[in-house]
Known about the structure:
mainly alpha; 78% helix
Amino acid sequence: MTPRERRILIVAVLSSFVAFLDGSIINVALPAISRELGGGLTLQQWVVDGYLLSLGALILVAGSLSDSFGRVRVLRVGLIWFGITSLACAVAPWGAALVVARILQGAAAALLVPSSLALITSTFTGPAQGRAIGAWTGWTGIAGIAGPILGGVLVDTSTWRLVFAINVLPIVATLIVLAGVREPARTGPAARIDVAGAFLAVVGLGGPVFALIEQGRLGWGSPIVYLPLVVGLLSLAAFLWWEARAPHPMMPLGLFRARNFWAGNLATVGIYGALSLGFFIFAVYLQQVGGLSATSAGLAGIPATLMLLFFSTLFGGLAGRFGPRLFMTLGPIVAGIGFLILTLAVPPVDVWRTVIPGIAVVGLGLSITVAPLTGAVLGSIHPEQAGIGSAINNAVSRVAGLIMIAFAGTIAGEQLGVAGFQRVLLVTATLMFAGALVSWLGIRTPKSGADAAAPAAG
């Protein structure tokens, strides 16, 4: 790896690390937030889903911005805005203010992930790209699962507000490293921004998510619930109609002509919907029902963190050599089995016999899955479209998580208990198995390492 490649990989990892860390560190802080600000499960859902909503709705626009104005420039703006909104979350005086700050923070996060992955795919090729994506996956995966450990320590030793304020440290470090990265030369025309598509995506996602969260409190018969649901669904239909006809769509439907692209994104729905739902309910359950401290609940994720750290690069490289299909099939099955093991964690919770083995198996499944999945999706499109391709895949994963967390109250019930926890994890495991089935049936091993050249965006 050349010094330039190494610096770009560090920037890509650090940029995404910030976004993934904040998306996961919040889980163990949710009980403390609701104790101080009130709001119960509804506020907990909104604190998580407010972030995922703006992230999922705007990440496609961010991908276009990345391809239009340059990955380095977009990363820099995103990092600065993320730091500002993190501090706004840290000082939020009441629940509604925290939710608004989280929505703005998610918009900043949308600028980070597509640009960082696009930097990797435009810099590395072949097996080296697989290893680089594996390294990116491992370290950002660590952020996603190690976040609860750090969050638990901060909550128990100080205050939940520090889980947001601490973001400033990696942001400053990333900006320093980013200062030495030059923008890769463009070989094609810049993409234009699809404003109408962005508006329809925001409304189309926001309406149904609002309805899913609030129906537990107001009921489906309330116009405050069913009107946003109807408007949102109509907006989603209009979004697809518009994207098929727009001169410069934010989600070029032509990309889905690549088999690995559509199959990989369909598998992403199940796999990432499962991850978001499973880890959300896991962290809350261990504290509110299992009686563990925030630190203990966070430490329970260490085995998964270690699995991702040790094995993600390995499986990313293997997938680059042998193709992603086998890994994308076996990995979700292993992770699903891990979530089924976690259903045995009933009070008094035996951490060593149920939680640790279950979460270790989940982590092993993730390390087998995530890098091959990312490589399959991004390896199926032209490098010039890496920004929007990464944005689409990340949007799919965030929206899947957004919707499943919105369903959490419906599946678990208003008061989280053992039976509700087990129902949620059964749904989680089923989603994982569905992702494995889609991967086995849909993913193909590219003859040249990418079916990239085939479909251009339409």
